[in-house]
Write a structure and sequence with these properties.
Blueprint: E1 56-59, E2 61-66, H1 71-76, E3 84-87, E4 92-96, E5 102-106, E6 109-111, H2 117-124, H3 126-129, E7 147-153, H4 159-164, H5 176-187, E8 194-203, E9 206-209, E10 221-222, E11 229-230, E12 237-238, H6 242-255, E13 258-259, E14 267-268, E15 271-282, E16 287-290, E17 299-302, E18 307-317, H7 324-327, H8 332-355, H9 367-371, E19 381-388, H10 395-408, E20 412-415, E21 419-421, H11 423-502, E22 511-513, E23 516-518, H12 521-621, H13 630-638, H14 647-660, H15 662-667, H16 674-688, H17 691-699, H18 702-712, H19 716-729, H20 733-741, H21 744-754, H22 758-772, H23 778-783, H24 786-792, H25 799-817, H26 828-831, H27 835-840, H28 847-861, H29 867-872, H30 875-885, H31 889-901, H32 903-911
Parallel strand pairs: 2-6, 2-19, 7-18, 7-19
Antiparallel strand pairs: 1-20, 3-4, 4-5, 8-9, 8-12, 8-15, 10-11, 13-14, 15-18, 16-17, 18-21, 22-23
Helix pairs in contact: 11-12, 16-19, 18-19, 19-22, 21-22, 21-24, 22-25, 25-28, 28-31, 30-31
Length: about 900
């Protein structure tokens, strides 16, 4: 019988629940290590940030933690004393050899079985994450130093409990990972700092991504200059809050390998490595430079690049060291145990070599030692917690663990700060300032243009006013000249009359000349003057008459325009009155229809109630013809939407599934009553959302019934819910092959072609997208119109639908890129015309669409045969943009790697004279 272990993430509660009264200082001495050292390391002084230094010497700190007896030990070892005796006040423990003799060991911290999780974090991990050194400077992850927290010990002694406990049921049980992230997020500034994490496991000498299980062969990268170790192929997720970090830990823990052994019912079979990268900005001082003309009044202010400090926290949950005969491992579990023991043995050899100052340290004997190269003998501040059990049956393993911790205390690290100038941040600031200056310049230009327009309008007003004044003055002058003319004409007429009277007829003296009668000179001059004046007056009168006629015509035209405008205004007012009346009529009609609908709804409820009553009475009389429990099932399905939502609804579905049975629920999918059929398919869809129910649904023929609903039913609600259930079932690889075998793609394509509701299209697109992720089904999926159906659904333009379409295209392109047989064939996506839509949406504002499209482009570009089509289709420019501006590091690096490794792309970039390397 396997024993129950008290320290296990997610196992027994209350094993460590008492808080220590005070934090004890670590004792500055080692058991068998020569001269005494300070527990935090032999720090001679804190470094000045931003200055070059050779590093600060710091010893590996080691704490030992005792696990309380578990249930098996309480029974089996009831008559035996513990093999370990702790003296926490002296930082010492005694390991009994026999009843009379014992060995004594000293550590930096000794934690009893009653030590709380908070106490463990404060003495083990907090000095690495956040600590003040003599109130002068800090040497922690938050200040640009690398740090490592590691747990070592026998299987079942509480390593995972100490490090990875989430504390979902009791916050006091939170482990070092959760508490460290709480301190980090509390100290950083969201505006200038960033925190990203990766979570992986070392299993059978293979590094696998716990956040993306498909990424199962990650390589180790070592910086030749700094010696820093990283996993560039692992998924890095930026963390903004504690809740998202806990979700990541929960996801990673679900993917970690575990097995049932005699020492632990849930024994970890891999080493878990959590890497937390902290990037913090430290503002530098501004510097001032004189302008080119030397005028000190105009100074050009230049910004010094801000300093960026990069700290890395590595939390390592080692798999348990164990003897094969005690763990009872066999078969594959035996191979796992051998791999674990080999890696831990390699780690022990490295620590022995470092403790003895050996010239050669066998770092490359195991991937575990390569990952921990910076933690032991490197530049990281390392804190190790060794976990032991009290049972005398495991004294050998306990002694081995204690000696491992003793040797680790002799290892010296050289702590170095990691900081650099953030030229990218400075460039972004300068770009922002440039944009502000451009906006300000445009604003000033706009104000200048507005001022010019204002002056122009004012000048036009002045000109119009001057012209109007001139016209008025001209009119007054004309009137004055007319009056003078009339007065002169009147005087001339009077003078003429006087002359006529004066020179009466017959008394005029006339002289005879050779050519006839001639007037006297005086009379002749008066007559000529009078004729000229009369001619001038006539000319002025004609000109005035012409001007008056022109003015009268202009006034007439203006009056006609005014009359037309008045008629148009009257017609517009009449039309507005008609529209208002129509709107009032429509509102009144809408109110009447709503009242009628409410009345009909009430009548419908009453009819349904009466029909249910009638059915129950009829069924009571013919109970022999109705299957047992089917009537109650109909009632439960009819009223399933009236029950509580959320967890209550899931509990209700689970209870319905348990009491009624899946076969009876599937029977209702073929009911004649449309209402019953709709509710039944909703029940099946809710059950299919739970992974535990999917296999049962498929075995009972639920998948066949759902596909038959798509074929035989015209109700779009049934189509939407059935497509959602099929999408859930399509997440399983075996179910994907069944869907394809039963013409699922053809039925989903037909549903997509006839659907108009965005939610229906989203469900259908999600189901096809899941099928696109299967390497074996690509050719058949394309032949049955799967790609055409995805592209046809973009007509909806709903962002949720487009996101599912983009996900399906990305899945299909990813499968193509990793299929060796397709290497010399043109992409099926390009042949079906998907490339123009991909390029068009590569820079979409919706991040889910953009992320999937960027991935699709990168996967398409990995095959040389697609390069020419992508260049002609404009995809090359999008790849260049992705490699430079994509927000996700993994996508950006993939695009960059693809561009630099594809000869066709390199040739085109060279032809376009675009520098890219």
């Amino acid at each position: 019988m396997a024993s129950t272990v008290a320290y296990r993430n997610g196992s027994q509660k209350g094993a460590l629940n008492s808080n220590s009264k005070s934090a004890l200082k670590s004792k500055p001495s080692l058991a068998a290590s020569g001269p005494r050292r300070n527990s935090t390391g032999t720090f001679s002084g804190a470094p000045s940030p931003g200055k070059d230094n050779s590093g600060i010497s710091g010893r590996v700190r080691v704490a030992v933690r005792l696990r309380p007896r578990n249930a098996e030990e309480l029974v089996a070892d009831a008559d035996f004393a513990d093999c370990v005796e702790l003296q926490p006040e002296l930082k010492r423990l005694k390991l009994r050899r026999n009843n009379w003799d014992s060995d004594t060991y000293e550590f930096d911290e000794v934690l009893t079985e009653f030590a709380s999780q908070k106490r463990v974090y404060e003495v083990v991990a907090k000095p690495v994450v956040e600590v003040v050194w003599q109130k002068m400077a800090t040497m922690s992850v938050l200040d640009g130093y690398n740090g490592t927290v590691m747990a070592y010990g026998q299987t079942g002694t509480g390593k995972t409990y100490t490090l990875g406990r989430l504390g979902e049921e009791d916050t006091a049980d939170r482990g070092i990972m959760v508490r460290a992230m709480e301190d980090i997020l509390a100290e950083i500034s969201p505006e200038t700092d960033s925190v990203s994490v990766s979570y992986s496991q070392l299993y059978m000498e293979t590094i696998q991504d716990l956040l993306d299980p498909a990424n199962d062969n990650i390589s180790i990268m070592e910086d030749p200059k700094t010696g820093d170790v990283s996993l560039p192929g692992a998924t890095h997720v930026e963390v903004r809050n504690q809740h998202s970090f806990v979700d990541l830990l929960r996801l990673g823990e679900a993917h970690r390998f575990a097995a049932n052994t005699k020492l632990n019912t849930e024994s970890s079979r891999s080493h878990a490595i959590l890497m937390v990268h902290v990037r913090r900005s430290v503002k530098g001082k501004d510097s001032v430079l004189p302008s080119e003309n030397g005028n000190t009044s105009n100074m050009l202010k230049t910004l010094k690049p801000p300093i960026v400090r990069k700290g890395k926290l590595v939390v390592v949950d080692l798999a348990g060291s164990e003897r094969i005969d005690k763990s009872g491992s066999e078969g594959h579990t035996l191979e796992e145990a051998k791999s674990i023991n080999l890696s831990l043995s390699a780690l022990g050899k490295c620590i022995n070599a470092l403790a003895e100052n050996s010239a050669h340290v066998p770092v490359r004997d195991s991937k575990l030692t390569r990952l921990l190269r910076d933690s032991f003998g490197g530049t990281a501040r390392t804190s190790l917690v060794v976990t032991i059990g009290p049972s005398s049956r495991h004294r050998g393993e306990t002694a081995s663990t204690i000696m491992f911790g003793q040797r680790a205390m002799k290892v010296e690290n050289m702590l170095k700060i990691k900081e650099e100038f953030d030229y990218k941040s400075l460039s972004r600031k300068l770009d922002i300032q440039l944009d502000k200056l451009i906006v300000e310049n445009e604003r000033q230009q706009k104000a200048f243009q507005d001022e010019i327009e204002r002056i122009t309008i004012q000048a036009q007003k002045h000109i119009s006013e001057s012209e109007r004044n001139y016209a008025d003055a001209l009119e007054n002058e004309k009137l004055k000249y007319q009056e003078d003319y009339m007065e002169s004409l009147k005087k001339l007429e009077e003078q003429w009359a006087k002359e006529q009277q004066k020179h009466g007829a017959g008394k005029t003296r006339i002289e005879l000349k050779d050519d006839g009668l001639v007037k006297t000179p005086r009379e002749e001059s008066l007559a000529v003057s009078s004729v000229e004046e009369v001619a001038e007056v006539k000319r002025l009168l004609q000109e005035e008459t012409r001007l008056r006629k022109s003015a009268e015509e202009e006034v007439s035209n203006l009056r006609n325009q005014l009359m037309r405008w008045k008629r148009s205004e009257a017609a517009g007012n009449s039309e507005i009155s008609k529209l208002r009346k129509l709107l009032e009529d429509e509102a009144h009609q809408k109110q009447k229809l709503e009242e009628e609908i409410a009345e009909l709804h009430n009548q419908l409820l009453q009819i349904n109630f009466e029909a249910d009553e009638t059915r129950r009475r009829l069924d009571g009389g013919v109970a022999g013809n109705v299957p047992s429990g089917l009537d109650s099932l109909i009632s439960q399905v009819r009223h399933s939407q009236l029950r509580d939502s959320g967890d209550g609804e899931k509990a209700s579905m689970a209870k319905l599934f348990e009491q009624v049975g899946l076969h009876k629920i599937l029977t209702l999918l073929e009911a004649d009553d449309a209402d019953v059929r709709i509710h039944a398919v909703k029940v099946v869809a809710n059950l299919a959302a739970e992974e535990a129910n999917q296999e049962k649904i498929v075995e009972a023929g639920g998948l066949t019934s759902l596909l038959m609903l798509l074929k035989t039913t015209e109700d779009e609600t049934v189509h939407r819910v059935a497509a959602g259930a099929i999408a859930n079932l399509a997440m399983n690889e075996s179910n994907q092959e069944l869907i394809m075998a039963q013409e699922g793609i053809r039925l989903l394509s037909m549903t997509a072609a006839n659907a108009e509701d965005p939610q229906t299209l989203r469900m259908v697109a999600g189901a096809i997208a899941n099928l696109c992720g299967n390497d074996k089904l690509q050719t058949k999926l394309r032949a049955e119109g799967g790609i055409k159906a995805l592209l046809g659904m973009v007509r909806c333009r709903h962002p949720d639908v487009l996101a599912q379409v983009a996900r399906g295209i990305a899945n299909f392109a990813k499968c193509e890129s990793r299929t060796p047989s397709q290497g010399n064939k043109r992409s099926l996506l390009i042949e079906d015309g998907a490339l123009p839509w991909i390029v068009q949406n590569a820079n979409s504002e919706a991040s889910p669409i953009r992320r999937h499209i960027e991935l699709a482009l990168c996967h398409l570009a990995q095959r040389e045969i697609n390069a020419k089509d992508m260049i002609s289709g404009g995809a090359l420019w999008e790849l260049v943009r992705i490699s430079r501006d994509c927000s996700r590091d993994d996508i950006r690096s993939l695009a960059h790697r693809t561009l630099t490794s594809t000869p066709t792309f390199q040739a085109e970039l060279k032809r376009l004279r675009i520098g890219y390397g």
